[in-house]
UniProtKB/TrEMBL annotation:
Compartment(s) of residence: Cell envelope
Annotated transmembrane regions: 12-30
Record keywords: Cytochrome c-type biogenesis, Membrane, Transmembrane, Transmembrane helix
Protein name: Cytochrome c biogenesis protein
Domain spans labelled Thioredoxin: 37-176
Main location: other
UniProt xrefs under InterPro entries: Redoxin, Thioredoxin-like_sf, Thioredoxin_CS, Thioredoxin_domain, Thioredoxin_ResA/DsbE_sf
Protein's organism: Thermobacillus xylanilyticus
C-alpha cells in the first residue's frame, strides 16, 4: 500500500506542476486583449532603463512631449531599414520637442554597439535586457512602434516596418496633437 500511495502522490504533484507550468506559459505567450496597450490609452510605464552609455531613463522623463517608442533588433531587416529614416525625421522635429526612444530587444552589448557603429543615429537607444518592457507592451512582432502624444496617450501603433513617408505622416500627426 505504501508504494501505491506514493505513486498516487507523485502523479498528483506531477499534474499540479504541469497545470501551473501551462498556466505560466499561457500567461506569458498569450496576453489578453485587455492587457495590451491600445490607441487612446496610456502606454505602460518603464523605469530605470539604461541607454547604450549606461544613463537611466524612465518614460515619465518625457511627460508633456511627443514620444516615438520603436522596438527593434539588429536581427530584424525591417527594423534596420527604418532606423535611418526615423533618425532623419527625428532631426527634423527634435527642436519642436520630439523624443525618439529606440528600445533594443535584449541583444548583448557587443551586438548593439557593432550595429550602431554602422549608423550615425541621434536619438536615444535603450536596452531592454530582461525583456520586461517587451512583455508590458505585449509585442508579437518587430519592429513595433508606438506614437505617444503630449498628453501621454497612445495616438498610433504600427506593427511592421515603415517607409520614410509613413514615418513622417505619423510624426506630423503626432506633432499636431
Amino acid at each position: 500500500m505504501k508504494g501505491r500511495e506514493r505513486k498516487i502522490i507523485q502523479y498528483v504533484i506531477l499534474i499540479g506542476i504541469l497545470l501551473l507550468g501551462g498556466y505560466a506559459v499561457g500567461k506569458t505567450l498569450f496576453v489578453s486583449d485587455d492587457d495590451k496597450p491600445k490607441i487612446g490609452g496610456r502606454p505602460p510605464s518603464f523605469e530605470n532603463v539604461a541607454d547604450i552609455e549606461g544613463n537611466l531613463h524612465s518614460l515619465d522623463d518625457y511627460k508633456g512631449k511627443p514620444v516615438v517608442i520603436n522596438f527593434w533588433g539588429s536581427f530584424c531587416p525591417p527594423c534596420v531599414a527604418e532606423m535611418p529614416a526615423i533618425d532623419r525625421q527625428y532631426l527634423k522635429y527634435r527642436d519642436q520637442g520630439l523624443v525618439v526612444l529606440a528600445i533594443n530587444l535584449s541583444e548583448d552589448d557587443i551586438t548593439v554597439r557593432d550595429f550602431l557603429k554602422r549608423f550615425d543615429l541621434h536619438y536615444t537607444i535603450l536596452r531592454d535586457k530582461n525583456r520586461m518592457i517587451e512583455k508590458k507592451y505585449a509585442l508579437r512582432s518587430y519592429p513595433t512602434t508606438f506614437f505617444i502624444s503630449r498628453d501621454g496617450r497612445i495616438q498610433d501603433i504600427k506593427v511592421g516596418g515603415m517607409t520614410e513617408e509613413d514615418i513622417e505622416q505619423r510624426i506630423l500627426k503626432l506633432m499636431e496633437a
